[in-house]
Amino acid sequence: MPRGRYSLHDLHDHTPLGEEHFHCAPGPSGWRYVSQTTSPSGDHLGSLDLALDELGRPIRLELHAASWQVRGAALEGVTWVRTDPTGSHATEGNVRAHTFAGTSPAFLIATTRLLRLTPASPTTRVRVVTFTDPVLAPRTVDQSWALMNSEAHATDNGPLIVDEYQVSALDTGERHTVHIAGDVVLAAPGIELEHLETPPSPRTYGPDLGEPPTDSPAAD
């Protein structure tokens, strides 16, 4: 069960935004990630509980930030309910998207488990609903993902496979690189792995899906 701490930074000026203390684990029916986020001064900022099924689809999302709350799951695309800090107003949303996204490194892992790319895979398009801090406002974004390289690194616990992904925002053309080992993000824009108590879980995927349905990620 990987357990550790990420530091989070502003994408533009690299200002520290806080830390995310996490633990995650694969299970018989998928993968789960739980975390708590704190400010640079140590104050509690929010939390995340994300569960995926064996195919990488989000079966439960509970996201908290600045007293806002989002609960969601894969249902006719992705469906969510966003509640304001007073708890008196709730707004439901639904988009024909494939998964969720946000500030947490967990969402990068979730997308890789959904796409199941190999270095031989073509560049693949995916539509995500991302929740922006601090009020968890939903925004639909189209991305393309490509696994550029997988490299084995020797460790005391055996070879560690590090995957290098190129992720592009299709609306702006902006590209960035994400390095992932199993179910731990090693480095990504705005994210640095500061501490890891136990090794990442090996990268595993569910059974072959065969031909994707019309609302699944598709190759360019």
UniProtKB/TrEMBL annotation:
Highest taxon, organism lineage: Bacteria
Annotated spans, Disordered: 195-220
Protein name: Glycolipid-binding domain-containing protein
Organism field: Streptomyces badius
